[in-house]
Amino acid sequence: MTVRLCNKNDLASIFDIYNHSKIDELKYEDRDFMLLPLEKDDMRLGGLMESDIYVYEERGKILGFGAHHDNEIRALFVYPESRGKGIGKTLLEFLLSNVHGQPYLYVASTNQPAKYIYQGYGFRVTETFETTYNEIPVIAQKMVRKDQILT
Question: What CATH number does the domain located at 2-145 have?
């Protein structure tokens, strides 16, 4: 297992992981969403590309990726079939170790499983607001890590 900085050759894998995972974070919403592939989502792709992107690689296959820009954790995605194996937690811990200052992230307010994991790392909801995904309204929350103790 390796967590390493992303390179240009990893982009196809990053797009594939995102495109297999993005709708999962919205599956608790009361409406259905159509995937807007990352490579066609100018806003999210632009935010990702200005970030430090890291991949989780095992036996030559990229299974997940995470990204941060300054204090903001902008991405944390794992292939659906690779979840439950600690890959997401490994990536989150790696990102947290590379963020200087108080880390924060944004999450769909209905994504309780992700929020539960983030809360275990000291993140707390500080703001609730409306945003959109593929032109459909979504209630999102900003979560800020208040304490520096890993649990």
Answer: 3.40.630.30
